[in-house]
Structures are given as C-alpha cells and as structure tokens.
Amino acid sequence: MHAETEEAIPQYPFRNPGPLEPATEWARLRREEPLARVRMASGDEVVLLTRYEDVRQILSDPRFSRQLTAEDAATVSDTEGAAFQPTPTPPTGEGHRRWRQVLGRTFSTKRMDAMRPAIMAMADQLLDGMVSRGAPGNLVGDFGHPLPVWVICELIGLPADDRERFAFWSNTMLNLTRYSREEIVAAQNEIDEYFYRHIAAKRAKPGDDLLSELIAIADAGDGRLSEAELVSTGQILLVAGHETSANMIGKMVAMLLDDRRRWEALLADPSLVRSTVEEALRLDVNFGFGIPRYLSEPVEVGGTTLPRGTTVVCNISAANRDEEAFEDAERMELRRSPNSHVTFGIGPHSCLGQALARIELQCALEVLLRRLPSLELTVPAGELRVRDGLIVGGLEELPVRW
To answer: What is the dihedral of CA 356, 331, 287, 145, to 10 degrees?
Structure first.
C-alpha cells in the first residue's frame, strides 16, 4: 500500500458517473493499487480490494466474517444498520455451520426450482395490475420490488397483508447514511416485536412454510437454534430473501433496454434468459457498499501482508469487471459461459438464497419478454435515479412504456 497523506485517502463508496456506468476508480485501483486505503462515512479507514483473485481469496476464507463486532473493527457509518451489528445475527462457529445446513436444505436449487410455477404466477399477477393501469408504468415500484417480497412472504409464511410494512424495516437494517440512529432503533424494535409475535402464532398453529420448519427444529431441543437465533433468522430471511432480487430486476431490465439489441436478442432466443441473468449480475454497477471482512489474524493478499485487526471491503462490482478474470470484461455478453462472478459471494458465507434469487430473476425476465415484448424506457438510461444511503444499490424507479 502507498504512504498517503490524510487528505489523499479517498472517501468510499465512490460515485458512479451514471446509473449504469462503473465508477472510474475501479479500473485504476485494479491496475495501480489493488489494496487501497479508503475512508468510510464514519471516518474510519479500511482496505478496499478490487481484484477478482484477491476478493475470491478473502471471501473463501472461513476464518473471516462480515459481522464487524470486534473492538478494533472499522465502523462503516455513524448510523449503520443491523447488517453490520451483532444483532440480529446467525450463530457463529459450529452453530453457524449447523444453521447453514438447516437453511441450505431449504434453499436448495431443487426445492427453489419447484417454486418456479408459483413465482411465474405472481409475476403475471403483478403485470396484470401494471398493464391495467396503463402505460407509462414504474417497473421498479409496480413489479421489481413487489415480486420478491410476495415470494419470500409465501416461502417463510408471513401474511400477505403485512407486505407493505417490510420495505422500511428492510431499508433501516441496510442503512448506511439514509436514516438516523433513532429511526433504526425504532425499526429494529418493531421488527423484533413482529417476529416474536409471529413465531408465537406459528408455534400455536404451524403451516407448510419455512418458519414453521425452523420453529419445529428449535423446539426439538437439540441446540441447533435458540429462540433469539430463530427471531434473527426470520429477520435475515425477510431482508436478504428479497433485497438482491428486488433491486436487481430493475437494474437488469434497464441494462437490456439501454441497448435495444439486447432485448431483441432475447425475444429472438429466450433460451438466453439464464445466461443473461448471470451476465446482468456480473455487470451490476450498483451492487452497493461491498462485502466487508474483519481479519482476525494476519493474511497475505496479492503479495502484501495485511495485519490482524484490518477491516477489508471486497468491492464485488470491481472484481466482476477484472480483465484478468473475464475476457472483454466491460462488455455485456448475453451468451457468456462460464461466468464465475462473485456477486453472491463465495465459500462458507456465500448467499444462501442465491438459487431463489436466480429463479426470481429468470422468471421476471421470462414473463416480461412474453407479456411486454415492446417494453422500452421512457427516459434515457443516464437520467435514471439511483437509491442512495443504503449498503445495497438499486434504482429509485424505472419508467417504462409498452
């Protein structure tokens, strides 16, 4: 790492020049300073990783977690949400391994694939509403955000009438600078109370859903899940179970409509949907903050030894555009295969819900191509507004006509 003055240390996250354009700093840092010191909104410093191999190395290492709870770990912001706090959190150590085994069976590709018809039906229902209201429409608010929320509510057994309450709770848990500490605490208290109450109701009257399964496991008394872990798990499933897809649907469609040839290629060959989803995930410039890790012991990364106590941030979007890992990395290639992007992480802390997210994105794209082949943006892609202040990135809205 370079010796830098205090003033020379850049503020992170970086600003993208446009809603679908990568930050200019990514390519420069990959070439010149792959282990770069950057400053968080809190004022604390971290080491930013931008090269694909370095990011894979750290994310694959089971010793390191994204929970920044050590006394000398960096604080992301003065009002960071629960995603970086000790509560809610899944178990650690051996408990974490068992926790992932339980959820891994639930979120298996085979089981998630069985949900495909139900997800397609939900997507059709949402489009029915959007089409009936007439063009122009907002694909984010009318379709992209509601669909994954409907799906996760169905999966974990939350009442459909409660859907509207989840967006604010989710955003506060993923806060970077958008909400005050008071708002975050209030929202956390509300979601805690909600899940304790809902778990009690499920315990009295179990259903055919994931939360009922988890309650049965906790009540078996084998130590695999405590009551507090059960509540935390419910919250994590709610937030993580819809945020990636909810944001990604709008961004994926914006990428495809920004160059009409991409949309036309999919209309001509719908078999490209799966590889297109993977390529959209790879090229997402608004992934958000990145994935942090606290180094509990010294680690050599890219020829440099990082000391114990270092907080690193893996910039997923930059790693996914590394020319050393992907040929013609900046170009959207709908047929790209293989496509070993790191959008869902890798290793022992990789996203448990990635199979569900992939299926949701595939279903959303398939239904849009079938129902609205003439879909187009009503404004230039460069004028789309990006969501700010959260550790995940997305579009505020996606105005479309058909």
So the answer is: -50
Range of the domain at 260: 6-401
Is residue 1 assigned to a domain? no
Who's near 268: CB < 8 A, 6+ residues apart? none
Question: Alpha-carbon torsion 179, 12, 52, 36, what sign?
Answer: negative
- Tally of structural domains, the chain: 1
d(CA 153, CA 88) in angstroms, rounded, equals 19
Question: 282-320 burial by CB neighbour count: b if 16+ within 10 A, else e?
Answer: bbbbbbbbbbbbbbeeebebeeeebeeebbbbbbbbbbb
Please state, rounded to an integer, the average pLDDT across all residues of the chain. Answer: 89
123 within a domain of the structure (yes/no): yes
> Catalytic site residues?
240, 243, 245, 351, 360
Q: What is the pLDDT of residue 240?
A: 77
**Own/partner long-range contacts of 94-99 (Cβ < 8 Å, ≥24 apart):** 95/224, 95/229, 96/348, 97/348, 98/224, 99/224, 99/225, 99/229, 99/233
Whether the per-residue pLDDT at 95 is higher than 70: the answer is: no
Q: Kindly state whether residue 170 falls inside one of the protein's structural domains.
A: yes
CA distance 184 to 174: 10
Please give the backbone phi and psi of residue 395, each rounded to the nearest 5 degrees, phi first.
Answer: -100, 140
Q: pLDDT at position 90, please? A: 52
CATH of the domain at 172: 1.10.630.10
- Give the pLDDT of residue 254: 98
Q: For 75, what's the count of Cα atoms within 13 Å in the CB-facing half-sphere? A: 9
> Considering the domain boundaries, does residue 10 fall inside one?
yes
Closest CA to 246 of 341, 383, 143: 143
Strand partners, 45: 39
The two structure tokens encoding residue 318: 């930059």
